[in-house]
Design a protein that fits this description.
This protein is mainly α. The chain is built from four helices and no strands. The protein has one domain. The relative contact order is 0.13. The structure holds iron/sulfur cluster.
């Protein structure tokens, strides 16, 4: 149960549509600092280390797939969602678009 003192990481992210409420309460990050999942930049050592730490939390999260699909569907521009970085989500989106184009032709 979330409390007033908890810092529910994913709950602080916007937008927060109703569909998010169905899985958010099981998020492994819900009491962790939001900043952990938003490393500043992707290239410096500290950002890489922070991203790896966030990804380790995601790896054990029971709602990882729902989280990732939400981030892709809502085109989240920043952060680690479902254990996947912004650039990794862009790659997934490109692969899926290419697959759809192939299937349509
Ligand atoms: S997959 Fe990661 S970012 Fe998503 S809810 Fe779980 S712990 Fe949080």
């Amino acid at each position: 149960m979330l409390t007033a003192t908890a810092s529910p990481t994913i709950l602080s992210r916007e937008p927060r549509p109703r569909a998010l409420e169905t899985w958010i309460c099981r998020a492994a990050c819900r009491a962790l600092p939001t900043e952990l999942f938003f490393p500043a930049g992707e290239l410096d050592d500290q950002a890489v280390e922070q991203a790896e730490e966030a990804k380790a939390v995601c790896a054990a999260c029971p709602v990882r797939v729902a989280c990732l699909e939400f981030a892709i569907a809502t085109n989240q521009p920043y952060g680690i969602w479902g254990g996947v970085s912004t650039s990794e989500r862009r790659s997934i989106r490109r692969r899926r678009q290419a697959d759809r184009r192939r299937q349509a032709s």
